[in-house]
Each structure stands twice: as C-alpha cells, then as structure tokens.
From TrEMBL:
Keywords linked to the UniProt accession: DNA-binding, Repressor
Sequence ranges assigned to domain HTH tetR-type in this UniProt record: 7-67
InterPro entries for the chain: Homeodomain-like_sf, HTH-type_Tx_Regulator, HTH_TetR, Tet_transcr_reg_TetR-rel_C_sf, Tscrpt_reg_YsiA_C
Record Pfam families: TetR_C_4, TetR_N
Source species, domain of life: Bacteria
Protein name: TetR/AcrR family fatty acid metabolism transcriptional regulator
DNA-binding region: 30-49
Length: 198
C-alpha cells in the first residue's frame, strides 16, 4: 500500500473490496469493480494499493487490527484466563456474524494457494495468536490450565477449533447462529486445557 493519508477514501476502498470479493470471489474481482463499488476512479485505487493482492492483504490487516484492539480492550481488565478465552471466542464469532461479507472473505477468499500471500496473512495473524498465547500462559500460571500443557499445541487447538467452526458456518451459508455456539465451544476447549482432570 502506498499511502493512507486520506483515511475515509482508503476505508471506502477497503469496505468496497470486502463486498466485491465476497460477491464475486477473489479471482473474479477486478480492481475496476472495486473502484466502481467504492465510487472512485480506477487510478485512485493505485494511490493506496499496489495491486489486487495488496488490497486483500490490507483489507485483512485493517479489519484484524480493529478486531485485535477490541479484544485487548475487552480482556485487559479481566484476570481470569478462562473468562478471557470465553470473551475471545464470543468476540471472534460476533465479528463474523456482524459482517457476513467479511466472514466470506476471511474464511474462504483469504485461503489462497499463493504462498507469498499466505505468508503475509500469517504475519498479520501473529498479533492475534499472541493474545491466545498470553491467555494460555496466564491459565498455566493461575493453575487452571495443566502445567505440562504444550502452549504451541494448545494455541493451534484453540485457533484451529474457532477457525474451523467459523469456516463451517460460512460454508453452510451462515444459516444458523454461530454466536450461540460460543459457550459450548469455550466449555469444550476448557475441558481440554483444564488442570482439574480426574
């Protein structure tokens, strides 16, 4: 991305890209379609983004950045690791349920086979995964999660479970309320992490 000084226009293009990519798929979403949806000239897009791939990466970076800020704000004053995890799961599902187009883009269209693109997406995800790591560490230190827990494996299990449930929901055309599953998902994950195992 080349410039972000005109934030309203940048945000306009990002939001238009979410709609266009959700509707047409990443490969069929020409820059001209995104420009038209955003109400800007095709050339204006290139003042902010290098190419279509840059739009996709920037879109994820922008939306994930906002989401991470929200999570950090919500869990900042919560000490209990189990409660922190419950908040994170509920907020993850809420974020997708509130914006169906964004759910399609993040759960389906971001899963491109392009290795360079995947690496960029993984880089953006690191901050979110770090929050999960901190929750796991807190749980181990509080004695609510098993001391012998493999933190990396636990993080993969937590993120993988949340991500798979979200993807399944999108694949089924979002026909049911995914947010209602948050408590059950939380309970199942906690059972796997808990130090209170008979």
């Amino acid at each position: 991305m080349i410039l972000k000084t005109n934030k309203p226009k940048y945000t306009q293009i990002i939001d238009a890209a979410v709609n266009v990519i959700a509707e047409n798929g990443y490969h069929a979403s020409q820059v001209s379609k995104i420009a038209k949806k955003a109400g800007v000239a095709d050339g204006t897009i290139y003042l902010y983004f290098k190419n279509k791939e840059d739009i996709l990466v920037s879109l994820f970076q922008e939306k994930m950045g906002i989401f991470i800020e929200k999570i950090e704000k919500e869990i900042n004053d919560v000490d209990d690791a189990e409660k922190k995890l419950g908040i994170l799961i509920k907020m993850h599902f809420n974020q997708l349920a509130e914006n169906h187009d964004l759910a399609i883009v993040t759960q389906l269209e971001l899963r491109q086979s392009n290795i360079a693109l995947r690496l960029k997406i993984n880089e953006i995800l690191k901050k979110y995964l770090k929050i999960i790591d901190e929750i796991i560490d807190a749980g181990i230190n509080q004695g609510v999660f098993r001391k012998e827990l493999n933190p990396r494996l636990a993080r993969q299990m937590i993120f993988g479970t949340i991500d798979e449930i979200a993807t399944n929901w999108v694949m089924k055309d979002q026909k049911y309320n995914v947010v209602k599953q948050a408590d059950e998902v939380h309970e199942l994950i906690i059972q796997g992490l808990s130090s209170n195992v008979d």
